[in-house]
Amino acid sequence: MKQSYLNSLAGILRQPTSYKLPLFRQQPLLPIALALIVGMVLGHVSHLPWGLWAGLAVIGVAMSRRWDGALLVAVLALGGWLAPERSRPDELPDLGSSRQYHIRGVVRDVQYREDRTQITVDFLDYWPDSLKIKRGLWRIYDSHELLITENDALLPGDTLTLQCRLEWPAGRHNPNGFDYRYYLWARGVDVLIKEPVVVLAVEPRRGFHLGRVIALLRQRIAGRMETWLGQPQTGLAMGLLLGDKSGIDDDFRSRINALGVGHILAVSGLHVGYVVLVLMALVRLLPVRQRRRFLVVGVGLLGYVFLTGAPPSVVRASIMAFLYAWGRSLERRPGGWNLLGAAAIISLLIHPRSLFTASFQLSFAAVAGILYIYPRFRAWISATPTGEQVYRRWPLRYTLDLFLIGLGAQLGTLPVILSVFHTTSVYVLLANLIIIPLAGLAVVGELAAILTAVLWEGLGAIFANAAWLFLSGIQLSVNLLSRLPYPQLIIGHPGPVALVVLVAGIIAFPYLFRPGRPRYRLRLAAAVLVVANLLAWRPALALGGPTGSPGRVLQVTVLDVGQGDAIHLALPNGRHVLIDAGMRNPWFDRGEQVVAPYLRGRGVSRLDAAVISHPQADHMGGLLYLLEHMRVDEIWDTPNRHSGMLYDRLKGLADSLGVPIRCLTAGQVAKLGAVDVFVLSPDTLLLANVRDVNNASLVLKVRYGSTSLLLMGDADRFVELRLLTYSDFLWTDWLKVGHHGSNTSSAAAFLEACRPAGAVVSVGEGNIFRHPSEDVMDRLTQIALVVHRTDQDGALVLRSDGRRWRVVDWR
Fold it and tell me: What is the pTM of this model?
């Protein structure tokens, strides 16, 4: 009875439909999944009420002549109704920067790092509750001082009562920057719990709690791996097996990501595939009937999903693997597109917000690329005499199949990668051929070690030693491949038109190699090349584009790097100058986290000049990362006598890379095409006598046509009064205020001489110096029409056509 029901359900899913596309007729769950996704996207963008979606569903179903059309309309409306809502920043209530709250919540997840503790809680209650914040996940983030107890670690299921501050996550503050609010929202986290945090009470969980069991099991596995493998292999092993990257060195993570194989640390379908192989090997040893084995595999996969924290890639792969095993038990071969559609439908019904995460998009795009590229190329290659010979030899067959699978995954994910990361790896296919097999063998070894150690510790140690060899092979391969020149190709953020062309090109790509019909292939290749060249030469044709400033304009971007400076000049001739690069310290690097993503998003892979306004970490610190990862033609500095660890390291790095350092003093002019950069300070006399390095700052006036911009660095009132000798030459359209708006700068006489129409203060939110000064802000608002603060308003983007400035709304 039960078996006939399962057969009937499987038959319904394979029932032929009236879809016009053959793929949709053969794989009916794919269009249903696409309709659900489209509905969710439309609902997320439009914010229509659920009643309107219900009405649209009724009308659409009533007007549809076929059942499949009515189903698609109903699913589309369902997607719109399920679409997660996201509050706009102006709709969020003010939480108060210093207001203290008491909250009570159940711990969902705990991550202990060397420098911080991160805890996610499913809150139960808070007071005062006048703000009416809806229930959801809250997160204690970047807590350096949170102590729960001296002896017992906090675990999921425990109930916490805290006294703390609350804060809405920060949104995107820079073009192409990281939107932390959106990132957390897509993962269900709405509010941040900020320091100071006082733990008022901890109530340990009594009774069974699944999250607690999983956390203890993960700790036990980590302890076993540490005993067997040692460091750094344990960190890599935990990343491969459970997706826990906390023990992996940051430098190794950056190198493996640059090679394009960082997905092995994200627990993807590759890992699930090897887990299924191990489960299938074990289930054959159990007295289970052939048609019931898929249930045992399903239970094992469910456990692995929980153990890894249920990332979208594992959920997707596990659903597909379970459905495939179920279909095989019914003596059917489910289609790959059908399985992908089913996985998408189930995943989105469980967690609708996951659609808007990069991990969900990359996971499903990778499988779609493999399903589209791999069978076509394999069929066409095997049809040739040479391909037939290749597929008769298993080493060549395995290598070619692995290459084609990697090619499909890379092409499928390319639109998402360029949209999110703005780069692509040059050696990704080579790295896949070497690292993916090693990663698979390492995962199998780790799983075998854990499972067999239950029966005999010695046998587990043997498998662990084998895994150690494969893990060491991964590390060696990454180290060697990362030494190859130019591992990454910086493309820039593609616009909607470029994305459409890219997707069309990927769809057309396999047919360029299709046997027969050479005239058809020639026309298709010519069309692809023409469109690609138009996009590539768009900046040179003055049509705008990612690498240069649109048309014949100067674009100035004052980035929000917190307490520091970073200013990018995109010149009309396509050249790029960066003035300062933000702070670098043991906890963060603004060059890596802010400046580099911004430049990559613009497609900038080369800086014609990097300017050090003065040798302090909040201005020059981020330049170290840029020197290591980007071509810099020369560095502009002053002939100052300052010496410090970071400054000396930067100059040593520049020397080792052959980057010349050009020392500038007052009176010099740098001509950058139609843009002139005048050096107003410091002069040699000032450099010889100055004690405060801030007053040794480069003060630059940038002029393009009749428009100008004055950049003050950290110069204070002492330098400003010296600059008054320039008289009318100080007049400027825009002023980058000196020393982050400190009261030691922006003297009234100086501002009167400059008479800026706009002023920008580069300052960090909640900085310990309490910049900017209220007095300075009062003086600025009395003179300037516009005063922009990066801590409140984010980055400032200005464009000049040589006649006037325009403020760009980059959001």
Answer: 0.83
pLDDT, one tens digit per residue, over 710-766 is 999 999 999 999 999 999 999 999 999 999 999 999 999 999 999 999 999 999 988
Residue 371 forms part of a structural domain: no
Token pair, residue 45, equals 């963008």
Cβ–Cβ < 8 Å for 39, 84: no
CA atoms within 13 A on the CB side of 744: 15
d(CA 188, CA 183): 9
List, for residues 449-501, the tens digit of each pLDDT value: 998 888 888 888 999 999 999 999 999 999 999 888 878 888 888 878 888 88
* Shared domain check, 307 and 197: no
**How many folded domains does the chain comprise?**
5
**For the residues of 693-715, what is the DSSP string, one character each?**
GGGG--EEEEEETTEEEEE-TT-
Measured CA to CA, the distance from residue 284 to residue 278 in angstroms comes to 10
Domain that residue 514 falls in: 496-536
Please write the tens of the pLDDT for every residue from 238-252. Answer: 988 888 887 888 888
9 inside domain: yes
The verdict on 785 and 662 lying in the same domain is: yes
End-of-domain residue from the set 27, 57, 82? 82
- Has residue 7 got a pLDDT over 50? no
316 and 450 share one domain: yes
Q: Are residues 727 and 765 in the same domain?
A: yes
User: Which helix (DSSP H) or strand (DSSP E) does residue 69 occupy?
Assistant: helix 67-82
Task: Indicate the SS3 state at residue 110.
Answer: strand
- Asked if residue 367 is part of any domain, the answer here is no
CB of 140 within 8 A of CB of 146? Answer: yes
Instruction: Check if the beta carbon of residue 775 is closer than 8 Å to that of residue 748.
Output: no
